[in-house]
Amino acid sequence: MNKKIAFFDSGIGGLTVLHQALQQFPEEKFLYYADTLHVPYGTKSADEVRGHIFDCVEAIVQEDVQAIVIACNTATSLAVKDLRAKYDIPIIGMEPAVKPAVEMNRNSGKRVLVFATALTLSQTKYNELVSRVDDHHSVDSIALPELVEWCEQLDFDPGKIADYFRFKLADLDLHGYGTVVLGCTHYPFYTSILRTVLPDHIQIIDGSTGTVNHLKQRLGLVAQHGDRTGKQVTFLSSSGRPEEQEKMYSALQYLEMNSK
């Protein structure tokens, strides 16, 4: 019997990545662990967050999982290298999908706009990524910390969120952009609302597909066509409160309903 595949995030954002995995591998068993005691990460110091990440991953390893997906761009940038050095199971990280976005717009003359947390944007790993792939200096970035907090409150009010996007984008000429990259796993919860604000020509992408493809390659998984209603997901959190597990389940159901 296969061991569970673990997904880790500060809160419910990583469910957007788990949802992608469930669509491809409905017969696998998954564990989702949220650090609900310390969410959000993006507004804390790097050293503080790094300590929380290691504590959580140690708890996950005790569950005897076959791999861990760090379904958080901030956590990946801060700790994935050291985690891989410490543990001998596959640890899959993720990064903002800047490279595919730049390639998509290479011949169009359009710019790329990255949404991420302030902590992700401040990290050397992110800036090295941009420097490596952005040879035409076409990448801009904006921090959207409020989205994480609203997402954790299951606040998906379309009017409020649309107004927020309009405010954050007010100083930009959106016609000059070809792609928006959602560089925080919480942000895809708001893709449908963002779509109503952006011009039709702008594409919206995130790192979930690439991360799940990497997981597939590392574990030798084969895409399945089973009944997703029977999926097996175990929800755990650093707080251990039952209401946190209920919130994670509700958020996953929200993603399921909005993907149909």
Automatic annotation (TrEMBL):
Which UniProt keywords are present, listed alphabetically? Cell shape, Cell wall biogenesis/degradation, Isomerase, Peptidoglycan synthesis
The UniProt catalytic activity note for this protein reads: L-glutamate = D-glutamate
Active-site residues? C72 (proton donor/acceptor), C184 (proton donor/acceptor)
Q: What is its EC number?
A: 5.1.1.3
According to its UniProt record, what is one Pfam family this protein matches? Asp_Glu_race
Q: Where does substrate bind?
A: D9, S10, Y41, G42, N73, T74, T185, H186
**What EC class is this?**
isomerase
Q: Which InterPro entries match?
A: Asp/Glu/hydantoin_racemase, Asp/Glu_race, Asp/Glu_racemase_AS_1, Glu_race
The protein's matches in PROSITE patterns, at most eight in alphabetical order, are given as:
ASP_GLU_RACEMASE_1
Part of which pathway? Cell wall biogenesis; peptidoglycan biosynthesis
**Sorted alphabetically, which SUPFAM superfamilies does this protein's record hold?**
Aspartate/glutamate racemase
Question: Could you tell me what this protein does?
Answer: Provides the (R)-glutamate required for cell wall biosynthesis.
| Family of this protein | Belongs to the aspartate/glutamate racemases family.
Q: What is this protein called?
A: Glutamate racemase
Q: Which organism is it from?
A: Paenibacillus xylanexedens
User: In the UniProt record, what gene is named as encoding this protein?
Assistant: murI
